[in-house]
Specification:
- The protein has one helix at 80-105, and strands at residues 4-14, 17-25, 36-46, 49-57, 65-68, 71-74.
- The protein is α+β, with helices and mostly antiparallel strands.
- It has one domain (4-105).
- A six-stranded antiparallel sheet has the order 1-2-3-4-5-6, with helices on one face.
- The protein is globular.
- 13% of the residues are buried.
Length: 108
C-alpha cells in the first residue's frame, strides 16, 4: 500500500505567518506503528526569513516529537485528530505570547 494523503491544509494566519498540516495513511511498520505519518508546522517570517516556530511530526526513526524554535522533545500521541486539536491550541498560545511581547515593547 502506498501512502494516501488524508489531509493537507495550508492556512495563512497573517501576511508573515502560516500553518501547514499534512497527514498520510501508511502501512503499519516499525517506523509508523499507528499506520499514520504526519507533519504539522507553524511558520513565521522573522527578519525576512521564514522560521519554524512550532511543529510536530513522526519522522522515520525519531517517532512522535515536537519542535519549539530550535528545541526538540518527545510527544505523547493518541491519534492524529487529537494531535491536530492540540497543535492548533499551541499555535494560538504562541501567537498570543508573540502579540503580548509586541505590546510590552511599547511600554517603558
Amino acid at each position: 500500500m502506498e501512502a494516501k494523503l488524508l489531509l493537507h491544509i495550508k492556512k495563512p494566519l497573517s501576511d508573515y505567518e502560516f500553518t501547514e498540516i499534512k497527514v498520510w495513511k501508511v502501512k503499519k511498520n516499525k517506523n509508523f506503528p499507528e499506520g499514520v505519518k504526519y507533519s504539522m508546522v507553524y511558520i513565521k517570517k522573522v527578519k525576512g526569513k521564514y522560521n519554524r516556530i512550532f511543529g510536530v511530526d513522526n519522522e522515520r526513526g525519531k517517532g512522535h516529537h515536537k519542535h519549539i524554535n530550535k528545541t526538540e522533545s518527545e510527544l505523547e500521541f493518541k491519534n492524529w485528530k487529537k494531535l491536530l486539536d492540540s497543535f492548533y491550541k499551541e499555535v494560538e498560545k504562541l501567537r498570543g505570547e508573540n502579540n503580548a511581547d509586541k505590546r510590552d515593547q511599547g511600554r517603558s
